[in-house]
Write a structure and sequence with these properties.
heterodimer, A: mainly alpha, Glycerol uptake facilitator protein, globular, B: mainly alpha, 15 helices, repeat (chain A), transmembrane (chain A)
Chain lengths: 280, 289
């Protein structure tokens, strides 16, 4: 859109960062790693607390002046937008183990960092759900399902996994597009708008799959309320595997799509990969 | 480049109105601050051998697949419930279409142009922004993607899908086919006009908000058109979206109205292309050097 008139033979106008090492011992001694983990913890806590609170509030008022299902979808999408905006520069603004997983597969973050992020996200989600429970009271919280993800009646577990998978694909695909150095260099709208399409991707996925699974697409978000509701016995607990398997599979698929089809390996096989599409 | 700031500030054309139409641009050709790309050839054999051509097709397929999957699933979620208050409602459907177009145009604009819509491809082809082969390839990939997307939604719950209209576009009772056609034409005009404005070389050079925001007004145009015309036709403005749902739903009353959702968008896209190229930009009147 912005660039695009250059011929393919000139030097590249962008630089791909080198792949992150699997284990980077140097970063373990740095404050910035721990600061990033704390930022992930806080952001996930806020995300889960506010969004679960919206879900419980809507169910308590059921239809009379509540935020409505559209309001729930906006709570998730809007919070992701705001929190990615705030934390992108500190930790990358993942707030989602599936996104972190995709980033490991793409070699953008090292393994210890990813493990630390995932832990921080899960702990943050549990604390956030606990905070929401405290706000609404244990009885009300449990009566309205605790904002946990579970499969709606009439849908098979397979449908739930596919719904989670495609939903996470949309999200992670958007994240990859927003953080791609090549796209950033070519289209001026990519770096400027970045958090907005990520938030709106979350919004539209919620609009689509709230009736099926309540929409996880974030294993930490599903884990938090399920743990706070109680171990072992609840429906949310027995369905929890769907909200880990689906998102991770979707994230891996998005990474493969972006990395191999849109960016990398397959293109190199063609000699004339320099042809540019007419930019829109 | 003198007067550019003034031009940007006013958002107006910098040539004085006393100059006759068309000649102004020729006279000032040497100090233009933008470059109009040459028209795409009808058939370009070179691009058939490039990976980026097929990658763009795959990107269109995946984008249309995701678009149909998310939006039809939202429509299903709304229409299966007896009370609209317990669902995301019509506004949620409109957000689903508009938000998805925004996110997908953002993601695929740099790969394929991010059309996701045969009407947009057709409009841009009329303006000679892509070759005929590419346009046909895109449209085929968009339609295939749309069919797959609607198919996955049907796979989730077949009875529910068939019992609730399958998200197919039909003209609502109380409206004539002419009403539906008019709604589709105007709706697509708004969308394609926005696309042309967002991709215009001159506007991109003059107004900094044009290239930076590009996907956002396109998504909003789709959102607003859906708010307006969901009660009339369910809002197509995208022949691939209408075709995908119609093929998977496959009932007579959906097929009877189906031509509207091809004729309407294509006419609207053609009008927008003519409006933008001839009236706004006067490109046919300019000599190309």
């Amino acid at each position: 859109m912005a660039a695009g008139s250059g011929s393919g033979s000139n030097p590249k106008d962008y630089q791909d960062p080198p792949p992150a090492p699997l284990v980077d011992t140097g970063e373990l001694g740095k404050w910035s790693l721990y600061r990033a983990a704390i930022a992930e913890f806080t952001a996930t806590l806020l995300l889960v607390c506010i969004s679960v609170s919206t879900v419980i509030g809507e169910k308590r008022q059921s239809g009379e002046g509540g935020a409505g299902v559209l309001g729930i979808a906006w709570a998730f999408g809007g919070l992701i937008f705001v929190l990615v905006y705030c934390t992108a520069g500190i930790s990358g603004g993942h707030m989602n183990p599936a996104v972190t997983f995709a980033m490991v597969l793409a070699r953008r973050v090292s393994l210890p960092r990813a493990a630390l992020y995932t832990m921080a996200q899960c702990v943050g989600a549990v604390c956030g759900a606990g905070l929401a429970r405290a706000m609404h009271g244990g009885g009300q919280y449990a009566r309205h399902g605790g904002g946990a993800n579970e499969l709606a009646a009439g849908y098979s577990a397979g449908a739930g996994v596919v719904a989670e998978m495609v939903g996470t694909f949309v999200l992670v695909y958007t994240v990859f597009s927003a953080t791609d150095p090549k796209r950033k260099a070519r289209d001026s709208h990519v770096p400027v708008l970045a958090p907005l399409p990520i938030g709106l991707a979350v919004l539209v996925v919620h609009l689509a799959t709230i009736p099926i699974t309540g929409t996880g697409i974030n294993p930490a978000r599903s884990l938090g309320p399920a743990l706070v509701l109680g171990l072992g016995t609840t429906k949310a607990w027995s369905h929890l595997w769907i909200f880990w398997v689906g998102p991770f599979a979707g994230a891996a698929a998005a990474m493969i799509y972006h990395h191999y089809i849109l960016r990398g390996a397959a293109a190199k096989a063609f000699a004339s990969s320099s042809y540019r599409s007419p930019h829109f | 480049m003198e007067g550019k700031e003034e031009d940007v500030r006013l958002g107006a054309n910098r040539y004085s109105e006393r100059q006759p139409i068309g000649t102004a641009a020729q006279g000032a050709g040497d100090d233009k601050d933008y470059k109009e790309p040459p028209p795409a050839p009808l058939f370009e054999p070179g691009e058939l051998k490039s990976w980026s051509f097929y990658r763009a097709g795959i990107a269109e397929f995946v984008a249309t697949f995701l678009f149909l999957y998310i939006t039809i699933l939202t429509v299903m979620g709304v229409s299966k419930s007896s009370s609209k208050c317990a669902t995301v409602g019509i506004q949620g459907i409109a957000w689903s279409f508009g938000g998805m177009i925004f996110a997908l145009v953002y993601c695929t604009a740099g790969i394929s142009g991010g059309h996701i819509n045969p009407a947009v491809t057709f409009g841009l082809f009329l303006a000679r922004k892509l070759s005929l082969t590419r346009a046909i390839f895109y449209i085929v990939m968009q339609c295939l993607g749309a069919i797959c997307g609607a198919g996955v939604v049907k796979g989730f719950q077949q009875g529910l899908y068939m019992g609730n209209g399958g998200g197919a576009n039909v003209v609502a009772s109380g409206y004539t086919k002419g009403d539906g056609l008019g709604a589709e034409i105007v709706g697509t005009f708004i969308l394609v006009y926005t696309v042309f404005s967002a991709t215009d070389a001159k506007r991109n050079a003059r107004d900094s908000h044009v290239p930076i925001l590009a996907p956002l007004p396109i998504g909003f145009a789709v959102f607003l058109v859906h708010l307006a015309t969901i009660p009339i036709t369910g809002t197509g403005i995208n022949p691939a979206r209408s075709l995908g749902a119609a093929i998977i739903y496959n009932k007579d009353h959906a097929w009877n109205d189906h031509w509207i959702f091809w004729v309407g968008p294509f006419v609207g896209a053609a009008l927008a292309a003519i409006y933008h190229q001839v009236i706004i930009r006067a490109i046919p009147f300019k000599s190309r050097s």
